[in-house]
Amino acid sequence: MTKKMFGLGAAALLAVGLAACGSDDKANDKSTSGGSSSTTVGESVDYKITGIDPGAGIMEATDRAIADYELDKWDVTTGSGAAMTAALKKAYDAEEPIIITGWTPHWKFAKYDLKYLDDPKGSYGGEEQIRTIGRIGLAEDLPEAHQILSNFQWTEEDMGEVMVAIQEGEKEEVAAQNWVDANADKVAEWTDGVDKVDGDEITLAYVAWDSEIASHNVMKLVLEEMGYKVTLTQVEAGPMWTAVADGSADATLAAWLPVTHETYANKFEGKFEELGINMEGVKIGLVVPQYMDIDSIEDLKE
Q1: Which residue stretches of the chain are H helix?
Q2: Maximum distance among all Cα pairs of the chain, rounded to whole angstroms
Q3: Residues in contact with 148: Cβ distance below 8 Å, sequence separation at least 6, in sequence order
Q4: 49, 38 in Cβ contact below 8 A?
């Protein structure tokens, strides 16, 4: 099911079918899966799913999906979120087939007409939450920050404004500042009743997902306005959780639970504090352009 984000206008629907070289007969023989009518989905993409960094929970879930659906011929490429979206743009602009690991919130759902593949076996779980977690002792050491982080929550539309601005070329800190300036009422809810401090230091760790870049840059500005000296540390998912658990980072706003980061939450149980849910209804899964004539992960077996 296609999920539209941020209240933005969707990209115009692409014409069904792929352009082909050669005669009209050959063009008419092309299917929306990216090849001739006899070409399977797997053949059209060389049995490749375009993934992101190997430490991400979505990659673990994708390995689980490969096993659950017995997709023995398939491989998942690793890289980065930026490399994945670059591959998506290249394929989408050429109306070629591609299968990616995807998640919402993400700006790509506003820019491109995409859909999640149905997941009847539940390999990716259902809707998730983005939660804020902190190191043990944060409430005692930095009580004002602890309260602000606990109060923090926003919507996909809020995050989307920041993500899209960054994707369109705005600097991260400028996009975050513009959102903060335009949403003083929401920021006031997070800081309500909290006293300012005088240069106390705090470190926030986060993964390099567009969603987490947006949230952490916004929170950095909020905490700085309250008198904190803020350090943002960008790491992969495993080191992010490790940093909070061992106290080298004070908190993160980027804990995707209960599925995406389940392994880390279990590994570090008792070594972190959950501060609250900062976004509801997030999701991970396999994503394809709407023009591809497949609807379920089970279709990849054909």
Answers
A1: 24-28, 41-44, 57-68, 81-93, 108-111, 138-141, 143-151, 156-167, 172-182, 184-191, 210-225, 237-246, 262-267
A2: 73
A3: 190, 191, 194, 219, 222, 223, 226
A4: no
Cα separation values, 271 from 61, 84, 242, 247, 296, Å: 24, 33, 9, 9, 38
* CA–CA distance, 111 with 2 (Å, rounded to integer): 13
pLDDT digits 0-9 by tens, 33-92: 444 457 899 999 999 999 998 878 889 899 999 999 999 999 999 988 889 999 999 999
DSSP-assigned letter for residue 300: G
The yes-or-no verdict on residue 183 having pLDDT over 60 is yes
Position 29 pLDDT exceeds 50: no
| Phi and psi torsions of 224, nearest 5° | -65, -40
Residue 117 belongs to what H/E stretch?
none
State the pTM of this model. Answer: 0.73
